[in-house]
Amino acid sequence: MKKHTVHKVFKVVKFLKPGLAFCFINFITFNCVAQQDPQFSLYMFDKMALNPAAAGINDALEATAVSRTQWMGMQGAPVTNAFLIESPLNNKNIAWGAELMNDRIGPTSNTMVQGNYAYKIQ
């Protein structure tokens, strides 16, 4: 290796050291929090979870209640409940949807409210 190339390598390492130290300190000092998405077996009942533009796709007011319990009989087993409502507005190109979901896994509980707006293009 030439002296000039070695000098360039040391410059890069010298430049990266503060950034690596910053990342390492942040990783150690901040709490790491993970999240788990609610789980459904059949997504045909919760179309808006995958695609918000699916609101009002059936051209009628539609309300759905979905409940899923995993590992029945076990304490702290995951339980997901959701209520969805969606409808097109008077203008057939515009639709709205809303979803209220509660997800319980062990000692944690997460409640989510989601609103959707869809504009259909012919």
Describe the structure.
The chain is α+β, with helices and mostly antiparallel strands and 122 residues long. It is 25% helix and 34% strand. The chain is built from 2 helices and 4 strands. The chain has helices at residues 3-29, 47-50; strands spanning 62-69, 79-88, 94-105, 108-119. The termini are far apart. The model has no long low-confidence stretch (mean pLDDT 77).
| Major β-sheet profile | 4 strands, antiparallel
For the largest beta sheet, what order do the strands appear in spatially?
A: 1-2-3-4
**Beta-strand percent range:** 25-35%
Element order, helices and strands? HHEEEE
- Quantity of strands, as a count: 4
Low-confidence runs of at least 5 consecutive residues: none
How many alpha or pi helices?
2
Key structural traits:
single chain, 122 residues, alpha+beta, four-stranded antiparallel β-sheet, 25% helix
What is shown here, in short?
With 122 residues, the protein is α+β, with helices and mostly antiparallel strands.
Topology:
Blueprint: H1 3-29, H2 47-50, E1 62-69, E2 79-88, E3 94-105, E4 108-119
Antiparallel strand pairs: 1-2, 2-3, 3-4
